[in-house]
Specification:
Layout: H1 3-16, H2 20-27, H3 41-51, H4 57-69, H5 74-83, H6 104-107, E1 112-118, H7 128-132, H8 137-147, E2 150-157, E3 162-165, E4 168-171, H9 176-180
Parallel strand pairs: 1-2
Antiparallel strand pairs: 3-4
Helix pairs in contact: 1-2, 3-4
């Protein structure tokens, strides 16, 4: 499905109050056979894997792993996936050496001895969109969530405030949240 087709699926789903997958099945003839209750998700993935060999092997493995513990259909899988969180895959009891790279949203509830937060500049944290809308409160809370993930050491990384690139000068002052927090 290309970008325009997916856009049409999203619009139709919103107009009809359906999920994207159900609209997709209705719009594409080759998906109609998946409506039958005789097919498990594992059957569908096997067919997809043979019909579309360029699909992500990681995605196929992820779905097959779910299928090993369940005998559900696509709807059951999508319901599970809607509540799935990457944090479920992080084993908190068995910390490994190395670096864990996460978004601020994915870091909620987790802690590490050292946390590095990159992009602590205006226009990134808070974002340009939040600044333009004069609505930075949610991003202030996100910044504090990120900063409180550190158990021992917090490193806030900022890029230079002024960068010259040819004749253009880019200004990126340090995030207001740093000053507000007293750091």
């Amino acid at each position: 499905v290309n970008r325009e087709e997916y856009s049409a699926i999203r619009v139709k789903a919103a107009e009809e109050g359906k999920n994207h997958f159900d609209v997709w099945k209705e719009m594409y003839e080759e998906w109609k056979f998946y409506n039958g209750e005789d097919f498990t998700l594992n059957d569908i993935v096997t067919c997809l894997n043979s019909d579309y060999p360029d699909l992500s092997p990681e995605a196929i493995a992820f779905i097959k792993k779910w299928c090993n513990g369940h005998n559900g259909d696509v709807t059951e899988y999508l319901n599970w996936l809607a509540t799935y969180d990457l944090q479920d895959e992080i084993n908190k009891d068995d910390p490994k050496e190395g670096i864990t790279l996460l978004t601020i949203h994915a870091a909620k509830g987790l802690e590490w001895p050292v946390v590095i937060v990159a992009g602590c500049n205006e226009g990134i944290l808070p974002s340009k969109q939040a600044i333009a809308a004069n609505d930075v409160e949610a991003e202030r809370r996100l910044a504090y969530v990120a900063w409180t993930r550190a158990q021992d050491q917090l490193i806030l990384a900022v890029r230079p405030e002024v960068t010259e690139n040819g004749n253009r000068v880019y200004e990126s002052p340090v995030s207001r949240f740093i000053g507000e927090s007293g750091m």
